[in-house]
Amino acid sequence: MSTLPIITLPTQASSSGGCEGTSTGSLNVATLYSHNSAAAASGDSGSDAPRIETSTAISPDEQGAPGQRDHNGKLYIETVGCQMNMLDSELVVAALRREGYELTSQPDDADTILFNTCSVREHAEHKIYSALGRLKHARKQRPQQVIGVMGCMAQKDQSLIFDRAPHVDIVVGTGQMAEIPGLIKNARKDRERALAVSLDRKAGTRREVSASFQSYDPLREPEMRPSPYQAFVRIMFGCDKFCTYCVVPMTRGPEQSRLPSEILAEVAHLAGQGVKEVTLLGQTVNSYKCVENGKTWRLSDLLAAMHETPGMLRFKFVTSYPRDMTDDLLIALRDLPKCSHYIHVPLQHGCDDVLSRMKRGYTTAHYREMHQRIKEYLPYSAVSSDFIVGFCGETEESHQKSLEAIREYRFKNSFIFKYSERPGTKAQSLFQDDIPDEVKKRRNQELLELQNEISEEDNAAFIGREVEVLVEGPSKNAIKKADSSLKEQLTGRTRCDRIVVFDGNPRLAGSLAQVVVHDVTPTTLVGSIVTREIQHGSSSLLPILV
Q1: pLDDT (tens digit, 9 = 90+) per residue, 419-451?
Q2: How many helices (H) and strands (E) does the chain have?
Q3: 17 conformational bin, left if phi > 0, alpha if psi -120 to 50, beta if neither
Q4: Which of the 8 DSSP states describes residue 542?
Q5: Are 6-13+48-208 and 222-458 equal in CATH topology?
């Protein structure tokens, strides 16, 4: 195997808009994987983005028609992490499909294997390294197979991945996704290993580092989205908050906003393909700010412009930062009927001392004031949160304050994580990870049980009521079997992102429907469809704000 070339590929900073380090590039056609959280999801600590707890392999059924292309063999891709990772995987798959790759759900059948990785939790990294270890023997049987590691762990560990797994061919960071097709081709042709990563945060000026994190939002065919009616749209990436426990500012780079014209063009393109719901993505999505053609755009301005898109029924966004929850954004949500009233805005802890050690940038008083404003503008809104248990120095008294916060705010759901010390973070160098794992597990379970209890109580208030549901399609985890050949269990979400399951015709997917709620769980409303009112491609019904 040849000497390893180290590739760091900065791009020219944008000159077409006034956003420092703004990403520019080709039109993106993005994808939504439904945010199917539990009422209280559990795991190890991470960034503010809700995490997907299990890795997923993209199904061959989601790959779209190959068209007239050269055949480059079979591709297997496995993804661990948040919605941003899921989107990145979809975009890489789209690019490789255009190069003639065929998807397979079996790694044993693959000519190319990619792992899109997460670094916010130690468990996620162990999972990837274990998977790489299992491939070592198989690689000997298939010497032409190409194995690649991409994403946050690739940006963080870089050449260490080659040290731990010498059979890996390419390592590609979050800002170099566009290089993957060429790197795979070179690896197969020349057996040349390659490392393509962006600059370290301290390796250059902000503009230089930002430019090295390339925007990757290419156009793709609608068949390559797993849902024809839902899509992710990235409006910004990177993070400048530097919480002491979090690696995301290092793995995703400086905070950057995409140009509004690009975003709006993408949304219009999606609407033309039949998409009904768009979820806007960003590490701190409500921090969005960009100047284009002399106008300063914020998230509220984007939502107002998107709201005019014909055919779109709903807009959501994740994840929000508490100190950037502005009145103009809440007013936009109140006044724009297509905007969801679901807001994911992590508190992380109920104790000010812990928040200070986390360097979250706000106090519990700040969060309380923000939450009060949300409820003043949006009385029926649903707010969700993240919590970290067992952070350095957490006492039983401070843990009780997190329990009190869940009781006070009655979150729709919470993502609850055990603290996981991450190399390179300030918390690792400043504090001792001094909470035993058994204590972390107990505290995690206590928050989990309380959140589930509150979620079920609040959901029970909807029994006997009608809710408006954007129908997503057949339920993958049916609670009961459909009772007619013309019906099967469908799933959808209310304007406040509550999951609703009910029996109905699969042709209702992509429509707004009225459902009467009969039963609930902590995570789900169970009901039956009201057949008198169904909306296709229009949001003229007055929304029920649940």
Answers
A1: 999 999 999 999 999 999 999 999 999 999 999
A2: 15, 24
A3: beta
A4: P
A5: no
Q: In the β-sheet with 314-318, what is the strand arrangement from edge to edge?
A: 230-234, 277-281, 314-318
Please determine, looking at this structure, whether the domain spanning 6-13+48-208 carries the CATH number 3.40.50.12160: yes
201: which residues sit within 8 A by CB, 6+ positions away? 209, 249, 250, 253, 254
Q: Cite the annotated binding site by residue number.
A: 82, 118, 152, 239, 243, 246
Count of CB atoms situated within 10 Å of the CB of 27? 14
- The alpha-carbon radius of gyration of the chain (Å, integer) is 23
- The residues, ordered by sequence, that sit 6+ positions from 175 with a Cβ below 8 Å of its Cβ are 155, 197, 198, 212, 213, 214, 216, 253
Query: pTM, whole model, 2 decimals?
Result: 0.86
Q: Who contacts 286 (Cβ-Cβ below 8 Å, separation ≥6)? A: 299, 317, 320, 321, 324, 325, 326, 329
The alpha carbon torsion through 449, 455, 460, 465 (nearest 10 deg) reads: -170
Compute the distance between CA of residue 343 and CA of residue 269 in angstroms, rounded to an integer.
Answer: 26
The Cα-based distances of 345 to 317, 319, 384, 423, 449 in angstroms read 10, 6, 6, 26, 20
At the second CATH level, the architecture of 222-458 is: Alpha-Beta Horseshoe (3.80)
Q: Which residues fall in the annotated binding site for [4Fe-4S] cluster?
A: 82, 118, 152, 239, 243, 246
**Any idea which residue has 């995690």 for tokens?**
444
Whole-angstrom distance, CA of residue 65 vs CA of residue 63? 7
Spans of all domains in the chain:
6-13+48-208, 222-458, 466-536
Neighbour count for residue 379 (Cβ, 10 Å): 10
Residue-wise pLDDT for 148-198, tens only, equals: 999 999 999 999 999 999 999 999 999 999 999 999 999 999 888 999 999
